[in-house]
């Protein structure tokens, strides 16, 4: 028997496993894939996440692979900069007053290599179902049953664990899909003055431009009821409208996906804990999904380690409630507000952003929320 089974070897699952193993808890990670996932997916790490990774001894290799972004920018489509916010105003709040731009696929090997030898990671173990028993939790996998005292489900938005337990996943789906294209272009040369992270306002076609170590990513809204092939076919023209290079953009990869705002009713169901996308999903504007998932993993795993060390389960319950509150009141609210503002034509809001950038105290308060510092410190 493993004291804890973690389902999913993404950044959330591996963070939970590393947090537990650092507390001396026997842990086994079950991953349905044969290797770690290589998709780019999330690419922004906020200051409190960097602090957690530092505590786990995994920050330095991430910094070596990523790009430090001290500023991010709001821009008007075709109209240039609206406001640039400098995360340096957070210097008194965090030792990491910046974001790091780096794909999550670069973090997971770092987390995996940091796990001690006694923490087992089993690839090719698809979890089909799980059931509580007198001995603990029986996890049925494609390679046979695994018995655990506790389970942490970090198996994504389509979580088998959550569905097996019959837990709801209430919320809504956005009226548009998001198209993400990775491009081999130096956008600083064609869009002078842009920051590593840029949110571009436009009621018809807002967009996001993000720099990562090897390329830039362009995020565009896309109708919900069109064929993927048709949307990918018109991508070159849409990129030309962002910046005319005088030649076709070099597109490395492009994909479309639906975007949801959903949350399960409880992050603790008996001896099973839900974390990250298995517990809550939101739109990616503001880069809060992976970050809040890593925060789930650290706080839930740390509380669970306390229970296994003889502490009261009431503390674990409080953490589970707190993490759900953060998901709803901080992450979902902020990411949805970001979506609404990008689609706005309100010049009054643009003036507010300019005033915000010019006022260090106001910028600090705003950035504490945007970077999830408040979600960790101002908790019930």
TrEMBL record:
- One GO MF term: 3-(3-hydroxyphenyl)propionate hydroxylase activity
KW Plastid (keyword) present = no
The chain positions of domain FAD-binding read: 3-333
Q: Does the keyword Oxidoreductase apply?
A: yes
Signal sequence, renumbered to the chain = none
Which controlled-vocabulary keywords does the entry list? Oxidoreductase
Q: What is its EC number?
A: 1.14.13.127
SUPFAM superfamilies from the UniProt entry = FAD/NAD(P)-binding domain (SSF51905)
Q: Which domain of life is it from?
A: Bacteria
Question: Pfam families per the record?
Answer: FAD_binding_3
Q: What class of enzyme is it?
A: oxidoreductase
Name of this chain's protein: 3-(3-hydroxy-phenyl)propionate hydroxylase
